[in-house]
TrEMBL record:
It holds the Pfam family Fer4_9. It comes from Nonomuraea longispora. GO terms for molecular function: 4 iron, 4 sulfur cluster binding; metal ion binding; oxidoreductase activity. The lineage of its organism: Bacteria, Bacillati, Actinomycetota, Actinomycetes, Streptosporangiales. The chain crosses the membrane at residues 6-24, 72-96, 116-138, 159-178, 213-230. SUPFAM superfamilies: alpha-helical ferredoxin. This is (Fe-S)-binding protein. One of its GO terms (cellular component) is plasma membrane. Gene3D superfamilies: Alpha-helical ferredoxin, Transmembrane di-heme cytochromes, Chain C. Keywords: 4Fe-4S, Iron, Iron-sulfur, Membrane, Metal-binding, Oxidoreductase, Transmembrane, Transmembrane helix. Residues 288-315, 361-393 form the 4Fe-4S ferredoxin-type domain. PROSITE patterns: 4FE4S_FER_1, 4FE4S_FER_2.
Length: 701
């Protein structure tokens, strides 16, 4: 068997050399950009969290298993990779032992003759084969030919995916050929357990040549597969665990990604700050974590299938956002790496490639792509390899907004209003306390410090203070807190916008200004606990202000109200005989995982019958207002709020409920249009959960 060992080892050396060269190339390319020391630091200091993430996300396949059929198939195929490594130890052992002793009857020391191991190997190989059949069926059923744009595979490299399925199939059938032939020849290490291999051993002829061919084919296909993997989207086999390791914990949602220049948090006070370095303008501005995202995308399209922009015919697909950057990075790779090594380029084509703007009419990404994003997080939530689409979009928006001054013109009005008046509508700050006059009890307004008996600072928010529909929620919450005996105070004219719309637009400088002003007010007032009605304010106060030194215990009003109902301090007794469907605000649900409390409150209101929309909780569909989209025109495709209301109407509701002032506006506008066109009944309205609760509590009191 000497020739078998020689061929096997020569093939191995060649394949490892080719694959190794590619890995080196990928490493060099990924490290041409700025560093991301915070990712390493986090992983280094949160070892327990990272181990848990690997166990749950990588080995447990948490996200994939939510997609039952393809998830189960992927679970078995992935575990086949790990378990069948033992078969490769046996295969290499057999060719080496065969060369030395003439008999390839190698077994792994200690465990290598256990029937349980033999069973596990055969079982996972069969499960893997079934997984391949499932994958093939799913790909055919969901092919772009059959579903067009609605296919999650639309835009993916389909040929490469089929090639990989074919290669895995080859690995599995040659595994059984080699093992069956070994069993027929009496060289197989297992006398029981390996049910398929032993059965094949009973039917295959005794033939040393067949066993040798089986071993070489099994090893050969694996080596070809290795080379294909490192040159294709299947690179994710190796990069996905790394991407999970270095992704923002717990899930790259909630707080917007911190803005960094050369790996350090941006300091707008720094006189040496180069204004051209804000955000990402060219591919060379991408950190190695960004490249790791490119390398990890499996092109599965789960993100695309959930994206509200893509689903309403806008040009944004989160998958293509990653793939377009990856393709450009590979096209520019030799020049990027040469530039990094200090070589100057004079060729105009090369320079054009290197300088190609990441965003622009002639850029890698069309501007409509990044401005279509609502930051809803549906893509990040679904991505099985933890790619951080919103972080990419935000960094591109930052460059566009702060360096190029290029963003949808309508948003410019909002920016000016924030700069001049501290709220997006440009209204006088004195109007912020007007709603208080409409109540029949006193509300304390902070002058310098929090009143001694006030437990919570009620953060009213710009919409809650100034927008008519949202003011109803504000008054309902204030009244409920008053009835429950919870002492609170408000900032009134001292409150300014949290800065969320500025930050999501990419105006980090303006966000910093507003945030610092608010943090100073809150800290000076001695605020410890905050309740907010707006999920965007809630998210910013709870998750982003700590980045700037403002740390408070922040709750959303639905969390506090659900607790007060639970404790018996609020008792809904008057029946509301209505069928209600609840819309999950993205910044409350997906970004902050508050799904149950609004539903718990409604469940306590007598008479209410709830009916979920098809897309709810972590798959909830955005209203279209997030990511500063509230302040931009929606000119492309179907309006997102209309799409959401169409879905709500399929439940035939009497009322649509939600827990966000911006969702109220967006859904309310779409409902009005539907009423005008006769598609919705006149009595249909959208209300905040707090309004339902006060109605049931107050009518009885
Ligand atoms: S955050 Fe939402 S809108 Fe933006 S790309 Fe992801 S899914 Fe699409
Ligand atoms: S970004 Fe994630 S969810 Fe989207 S296609 Fe790539 S791997 Fe799939």
């Amino acid at each position: 068997m000497l020739w078998v060992a020689i061929i096997g080892l020569v093939m191995t050396v060649l394949a490892v050399a080719v694959a190794g060269r590619r890995v080196l190339f990928l490493y060099k390319l990924a490290t041409v950009g700025p560093p991301a020391p915070e990712r390493v630091e986090y992983a280094r200091t949160h070892v327990a969290d990272e181990i848990k993430a690997q166990l749950v996300e990588v080995f447990g396949q948490r996200k994939l298993l939510k997609w039952t059929a393809s998830g189960v198939a992927h679970f078995f195929v992935m575990w086949a990779f790990f378990i069948l490594l033992t078969v490769y130890v046996e295969a290499y052992g057999a060719i080496i032992q065969g060369a030395i002793t003439g008999t390839p009857d190698f077994h792994i020391p200690l465990i290598g003759t256990w029937g349980a191991l033999g069973f596990l190997q055969d079982f996972i190989a069969v499960a893997c084969l079934l997984g391949l059949v499932a994958f093939a069926a799913i790909r055919i059923k969901n092919s772009p030919k059959a579903l067009g744009r609605r296919s999650r595979f639309s835009g993916s490299h389909l040929g490469g995916a089929w090639l990989v399925l074919f290669m895995i199939f080859n690995i599995i059938w040659t595994l059984f050929l080699a093992r069956g032939a070994a069993a027929a020849n009496g060289n197989f290490p297992y006398s029981s357990g390996a049910f398929v291999s032993l059965a094949l051993g009973d039917v295959l002829p005794r033939s040393t040549l067949l066993e040798e061919i089986g071993l070489l084919l099994h090893i050969g296909f694996m080596l070809v597969f290795l080379v294909i993997v490192v040159n294709s989207k299947h690179l994710h086999i190796f990069t996905a665990p790394l991407n999970v390791l270095f992704s923002r914990r717990p899930d790259a949602m909630g707080a917007a990604v911190e803005m960094r220049v050369d790996g350090k948090p941006v300091d707008f006070e720094d006189e040496d700050l180069d204004p051209e370095r804000l955000g990402r303008g060219k591919i060379a501005d991408t950190t190695w974590k960004g490249f790791l995202d490119f390398y990890s995308c499996t092109e599965c399209g789960r993100c695309q299938s959930q994206c509200p922009a893509w689903n309403t015919d806008k040009p944004l697909s989160p998958k293509m956002l990653i793939l377009d950057q990856r393709d450009h990075a590979f096209a520019a790779a030799p020049y990027l790496m040469a530039a990094e090594a200090g070589q100057q380029h004079k060729d105009t084509d090369v320079l054009a490639l290197l300088e190609k703007p990441l965003v622009g009419e002639e850029g890698v990404i069309h501007p409509d792509v990044i401005w279509s994003c609502t930051n809803c997080g549906a893509c990040v939530e679904q991505c099985p390899v933890d790619i951080e689409h919103i972080d990419h979009i935000l960094d591109m928006r930052r460059y566009q907004a702060m360096v190029e001054s290029s963003f949808p013109s309508e948003a410019g009005v909002m920016v000016k209003n924030l700069e001049n008046k501290g709220n997006p509508w440009g209204m006088s700050e004195m109007k912020r306390a007007d709603w208080i006059e409409e109540l029949d009890f006193e509300v304390e307004v902070v002058e310098d410090t929090m009143p001694a008996d006030a437990e919570y600072l009620f953060w009213v928010g710009c919409a809650g203070a100034l927008e008519d529909r949202a003011k109803k929620t504000t008054k309902a919450v204030a009244e409920l807190l008053h009835i429950a005996g919870v002492k609170f105070a408000v900032l009134g004219p001292m409150e300014a916008c949290t800065g969320d719309p500025a930050r999501r637009l990419g105006m980090e400088y303006l966000f910093n200004m507003l945030a610092q002003q608010n943090i100073e007010t809150l800290n000076d007032a001695g605020v410890k606990k905050i309740v907010a009605t707006c999920p965007h304010c809630f998210n910013t106060l709870a998750n982003e202000y700590p980045q700037l030194g403002g740390t408070y215990e922040v709750v959303h009003h639905t969390q506090l109200l659900a607790k007060l109902v639970d404790e018996g301090l609020l008792t809904p007794v008057t029946p509301i005989e209505e069928k209600i469907t609840y819309h999950d605000p993205c910044f409350l649900g997906r970004h902050n995982k508050v799904y149950s409390q609004p539903r718990d409150i409604m469940a306590k209101v007598p008479g209410v019958k709830t009916q979920e929309m098809h897309r709810h909780k972590d798959r909830g569909f955005c209203c279209g207002a997030g990511g500063a989209r509230m302040w931009m025109e929606e000119r492309i495709g179907k309006r997102i709020n209309t799409e959401r209301v169409d879905e709500a109407l399929t439940t035939d509701p009497d009322t649509v409920s939600t827990a966000c002032p911006f969702c109220m506006v967006m859904l309310g506008d779409a409902i009005s249009e539907k009423k005008n066109s006769g598609e919705a009944k006149e009595s249909l309205e959208v209300v905040d959960v707090a309004q339902l609760l006060i109605k049931s509590v107050k009518d009885a009191s």
